[in-house]
C-alpha cells in the first residue's frame, strides 16, 4: 500500500488577496466545484492507497478536515507542525512516523495545492514509479510547462523517457528565464515516491547531520580564530547524540559557561533511527 503524505502548510500569500495566510489558495474555489486541497486528496484514493497523512499547521487544521469531509474522503491522520520548516523536515517526520506501523511503508509525498486534471494518468505514473522504489530509489515526477517558468525547478534526465523511471542527471532550482525556456518540458512537480525506511535514507540523513555540524564547527573556528574538531557519539541510551567539541579560549572572554579550555556543544535529536534496529 502507498500512503499519501499531503503537505498542507505554507503562508498562502502568492495569490493575494484571493489567497492569504488565513485562507490559502488550496482552499479557494479556483477549480469549479472543488478546490486544490480537495483535488489533491481525490487523486490519491483507491485500492493501492492507504489512509493519508496530512501535515498542516494549527491555523488551518479544522479547514483541512472540513475540506476532506465535503468530498467524502477519509480524513486520515493529521500531524500538526508547531512551526513551519518547509518541505524537508515534514518529509523526514513522515519517514520516521510511518514505520511505527509498517517498516516497509511506501509514501507518496505531494503538495495540497497542485493541479493534475487527469487523475487516472497521475495514478498510473505513481504505479510505474514503484519500479524505481522497489530497487531502493527515490522517485520524483515532472510536469509539462507550456513556457519557461522561473518559479519552477527543472530536472534533466540521463536518458530519453521510456515509459518507466529514468535516472536523473541533475536538478536546477528556479533557473533564469533562458534556461527555463530550454527546460520547459521537465518542470519538477515536487511529488516524491519513496520507502520510508531504507539504507539510502538513513545514510543520507546521517551524512547531512554530520555535514551540518562540521559546517558549524568551521563557522565557530572562523569566528574565534582556532581550529575546531567534530566528534560523533553514537550512544543509544537516550537517542542519537551528536557532539561538537573544540578547544577554545572562551574563558578569557568572560563567558559564563566557559569554565575550562574545552567547551562542549551538544545537539540532541529524537531517536529517529530507533537505536539502529
Describe this entry's structure for a reader.
- This protein is an alpha/beta fold and 277 residues long.
- It is 27% helix and 23% strand.
- The chain is built from 6 helices and 11 strands.
- The strands form 3 sheets. A 6-stranded mixed sheet has the order 3-2-1-4-8-5, sandwiched between helices. The protein has a 3-stranded antiparallel sheet with strand order 9-10-11, with helices on one face.
- β9 and β10 form a beta hairpin.
- The radius of gyration is 22 Å and the shape is globular.
- Mean pLDDT is 67; it is low at 199-203 and 227-277.
List the helices and strands and how they pair.
Layout: E1 2-8, H1 36-43, E2 53-57, H2 61-70, E3 77-81, H3 87-97, E4 106-111, H4 119-133, E5 139-143, E6 154-157, E7 168-172, H5 177-182, E8 187-195, H6 199-224, E9 229-233, E10 241-247, E11 262-268
State the gist of this model.
By secondary structure, the chain is an alpha/beta fold. The chain folds into 2 domains: 2-198, Spore Coat Polysaccharide Biosynthesis Protein SpsA, Chain A, CATH 3.90.550; 200-268, no CATH class.
Terminal CA distance reads 23 Å
Q: What is the count of distinct domains?
A: 2
Helix content: 25-40%
Strand arrangement in the largest pleated sheet:
3-2-1-4-8-5
What structural category characterises the helix and strand content?
alpha/beta
Radius of gyration: 22 Å
Features:
2 domains, alpha/beta, 277 residues, Spore Coat Polysaccharide Biosynthesis Protein SpsA, Chain A
Amino acid at each position: 500500500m502507498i500512503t499519501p503524505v499531503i503537505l498542507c502548510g505554507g503562508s498562502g500569500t502568492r495569490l493575494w488577496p484571493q489567497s492569504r495566510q488565513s485562507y490559502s489558495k488550496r482552499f479557494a474555489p479556483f477549480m469549479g466545484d472543488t478546490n486544490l486541497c480537495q483535488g489533491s486528496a481525490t487523486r490519491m484514493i483507491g485500492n493501492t492507497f492507504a489512509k493519508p497523512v496530512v501535515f498542516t499547521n494549527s491555523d488551518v487544521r479544522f479547514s483541512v478536515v472540513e475540506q476532506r469531509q465535503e468530498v467524502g474522503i477519509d480524513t486520515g491522520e493529521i500531524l500538526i507542525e508547531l512551526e513551519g520548516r518547509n518541505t524537508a523536515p515534514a518529509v523526514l517526520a513522515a519517514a520516521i512516523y510511518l514505520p511505527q506501523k509498517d517498516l516497509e511503508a511506501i509514501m507518496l509525498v505531494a503538495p495540497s495545492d497542485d493541479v493534475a486534471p487527469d487523475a487516472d494518468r497521475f495514478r498510473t505514473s505513481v504505479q510505474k514509479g514503484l519500479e524505481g522504489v522497489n530497487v531502493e530509489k527515490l522517485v520524483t515526477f515532472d510536469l509539462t510547462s507550456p513556457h519557461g517558468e522561473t518559479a519552477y525547478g527543472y530536472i534533466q534526465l540521463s536518458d530519453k523517457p521510456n515509459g518507466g523511471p529514468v535516472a536523473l542527471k541533475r536538478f536546477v532550482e528556479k533557473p533564469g528565464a533562458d534556461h527555463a525556456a530550454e527546460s520547459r518540458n521537465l518542470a519538477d512537480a515536487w511529488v516524491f515516491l519513496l520507502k520510508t525506511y531504507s539504507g539510502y535514507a538513513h545514510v543520507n540523513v546521517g551524512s547531512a547531520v554530520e555535514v551540518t555540524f562540521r559546517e558549524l564547527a568551521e563557522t565557530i573556528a572562523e569566528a574565534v580564530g582556532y581550529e575546531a574538531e567534530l566528534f560523533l557519539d553514537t550512544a543509544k541510551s537516550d537517542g542519537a547524540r551528536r557532539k561538537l567539541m573544540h578547544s577554545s579560549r572562551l574563558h578569557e572572554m568572560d563567558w559564563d559557561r566557559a569554565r575550562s579550555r574545552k567547551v562542549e556543544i551538544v545537539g540532541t535529536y529524537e531517536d529517529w533511527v530507533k537505536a539502529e534496529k
